[in-house]
Write a structure and sequence with these properties.
Blueprint lengths: L3 E3 L8 H6 L10 H17 L5 E6 L4 H10 L5 E6 L2 H12 L3 E6 L8 H10 L4 E5 L1 E2 L4 E2 L2 H8 L6 E5 L11 H4 L3 E5 L10 E6 L1 H9 L9 H11 L8 H17 L1 H21 L3 E2 L10 E5 L7 H10 L2 E5 L8 E5 L6 H15 L2
Helix pairs in contact: 2-10, 3-4, 5-6
The protein binds pyridoxal-5'-phosphate.
């Protein structure tokens, strides 16, 4: 039996979206492909109200971490990596692992790296980039990205690199207004598509920086990828055309619903889940004021109920949620309410949990 995915990615994909992938292929050097890719990028620009460069890679979102490391940090430059969970820590690993200098700035899991903390760091040191995870999926903490962007507008040499893997297309994101330089996501989260594509939005300042940085490799060379698009309106290597059909279709739906309405739907799901958790005597793991709208991390430490047993019972009802991440397995559980999910569906899930646990 299929288990409806209430995990924070991959999330549920509608059948009509899955079916888009079964369309007959054409070559990636054909006019058909140029039209498809241009349609995808045009819709992304419209959805995110951006005039920045947009690209879609055949990869998962993590590749953009390597892109940030290899393209945006100068050989003698330094990155400030704000870490408050597993995925922001992965960004630090990518930069550190590329041989570039990365400063780990870490706060406790469940807490946010605040704009004031970042202000203190950038006032004291010149960084090539600051990396921030907009929505730390391991903890359910979201960053105040607008405030961080506003701060960094005062430091034009410092680019803002944002992992928005689990919130782009669900939470609000305005790259131009907020001043992000590289913001990226994977398709299996709020776009409600299968995994396999990664979307990136790149400022002109970021592209200019990439032009200045040597040894950028091939597949992850921003200058080459964006330059190829500029010249040919295509991708330098063969992309996953089947998934691009699905993305093109999905973006039409997203534009019809509208970014603000999508955000409202996600916020409503988050608020409903938060109230439900508190009503039943659980805690919320994420710091107040910084709670994600796409994933709720419920603190199970007071009630200490068996999350694995819950998931087994949910499975029999065709549902699945996520356990706590890493060291918080069993101590937390996470509900991914992203993509096409609605409050109505969420109510069914939460009722099933109530019934299984006798809440
Ligand atoms: C915030 C965040 N960043 C990065 C990743 C990694 O994304 P991918 O597995 O698509 O490379 C994830 C995956 O869950 C994530 O939630």
């Amino acid at each position: 039996m299929h288990k409806k995915l209430w995990i924070p990615g991959p999330t549920e994909v509608k059948e009509e979206v899955l079916k888009q992938q079964a369309k007959p292929l054409f070559g990636h050097r054909s006019k058909n492909f140029t039209e498809l890719y241009d349609s995808v990028l045009t819709q992304l620009r419209e959805f995110f109200k951006t005039e920045q460069h947009v690209l879609v890679l055949t990869a998962s979102g993590t590749l953009f971490m390597d892109i940030a490391a290899r393209n945006l940090v100068r050989p003698d430059g330094k990155a400030l990596c704000c870490v408050n969970g597993s995925f922001s820590s992965r960004m630090y690993d990518a930069i550190d692992g590329s041989g570039k200098e990365a400063e780990l700035f870490e706060v406790e899991w469940g807490k946010a790296v605040t704009v004031d903390m970042i202000k203190e760091k950038v006032e004291a040191t010149k960084y090539d980039i600051v990396t921030v995870c907009y929505n730390e999926t391991s903890t359910g903490v979201k960053a105040d990205l607008k405030a961080i962007g506003d701060l960094l507008k005062n430091y034009p040499e410092t680019l803002l690199v944002v992992d928005a893997v689990s919130s782009m297309g669900g939470d609000m994101l305005l790259p131009d207004e907020w001043g992000t330089d590289l913001v990226f996501a994977s398709t299996q989260k709020c776009f409600a598509l299968p995994p396999g594509l990664a979307v990136g939005i790149v400022s002109q300042a970021a592209l200019d920086r990439a032009k200045e940085v040597p040894d950028k490799g091939l597949y992850i060379n921003l200058e080459k990828i964006l330059g190829y698009y500029e010249k040919k309106k295509q991708t330098p290597s063969t992309p996953n055309i089947s998934l691009l059909f699905a993305l093109d279709y999905k973006l039409k739906e997203m534009l019809a619903e509208g970014a603000e309405n999508i955000y409202k739907r996600h916020k409503e799901m988050a608020d409903y889940t938060h109230e439900w958790a508190l009503k039943h005597g659980f805690g919320l793991f994420a710091e107040e004021g910084y709670r994600s709208v796409t994933v709720t991390t419920v603190d199970n430490r007071v009630k200490n109920l068996d999350v694995d047993a819950l998931n087994k019972a949910l499975g029999e009802k065709g549902l699945v949620i996520a356990n706590g991440y890493g060291p918080f397995k069993g101590k937390n559980f996470r509900i991914g309410h992203m993509g096409d999910h609605t409050v109505e569906g969420l109510k069914e899930l939460l009722s099933a949990i109530e019934e299984i646990w006798g809440l």
